[in-house]
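Re-run requested by the PI after the first attempt was lost when the workstation crashed. Everything re-entered from the original request form. Ligand of interest: nicotinamide-adenine-dinucleotide.
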Amino acid sequence: MAREAAGSGVPRSERVAVLGAGTMGHGIAQVAAMAGYGVTLHDTSPDALARGLERTADNLATGVALGKVTAEARAAALDRVEGASSLKEAVAGAAIVIEAVPESLALKHRVFRDVERAAPTNALLATNTSGLSITEIAVALGRPGRFLGLHFFNPAHLMALVEVVRGRDTEEATVDRALAFVRQLGKEPIVVNDSPGFASSRLGLLLGLEAMRMVEEGVAEPEAIDRAMELGYRHPMGPLRLSDLVGLDVRLGIAEYLQAKLGERFRPPEILRRMVAEGRLGKKTGSGFYRW
Ligand code: NAD
């Protein structure tokens, strides 16, 4: 039987709808199901939806193999997740809607217009955007007070942090409800006011860009720079290895965006532009600051 949450949280017997079953959506669905929520996962692509459900099952099987999840908990979580090919069907009975569709303002506007028409009026609405303005996404909504950012990290089932991003019109009760929900997921929330790059990308990217400039200037080899942060500052992974994992094209895109919004300290180094132009994008192409 589903347990009720304490305080202003959402009762776990209520449903969470996750829109977009890609890299982030399938992981968020898994985390919510493991925390006891009923989850409806929706994607406009039937293939992506099937793959998302499959990846959730695979992740949980890995959890069982590693002894981190019991076979019973895996089976119960999978029982709580269902797929939906229509957005309307996915959000109709939802207490929380989390959008994880691609990073396009126009697309997110379209999705939230549809969500507002079909979701219960008291549902909490959240976007997993990693960089778009929460306030700008909220323009699509007639009632933006119940909307905010819930920025999960990749892979969502393993990463503990969730940035709770307050837009200009987000009501405090919405922030409180989101904080309780994130804690029920077993994650740690931080509250950030809507600003470019939120807290995590802004700080993390700056470190990455400076590490790239150091390679460019011949200060040290990439391994040495990464070890400086790993051993000297206890970062689990150095900024260059992390950049390779994220994808250098992705890092370049965010740097250009933050340069436009926040100024020259985010100017992408030449070495980053050159590596992207050469197709050396990091792990996904087999070569970046490291060979993979
Ligand atoms: P993705 O491309 O892996 O998945 C997006 C999914 O959305 C795809 O399966 C696609 O078919 C589906 N989709 C497209 N249009 C849709 C619609 N109208 N309705 C429903 N589904 C639709 O993308 P992702 O990496 O999971 O990113 C999703 C969001 O999460 C983006 O806003 C991104 O910025 C953010 N984010 C990504 C990461 C990351 O590391 N990948 C981390 C944090 C946040």
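Saved to the shared folder this time. The pocket of nicotinamide-adenine-dinucleotide is lined by residues 19-25, 42-45, 48, 100-103, 111, 128-130, 152-154 (CB under 6 Å).
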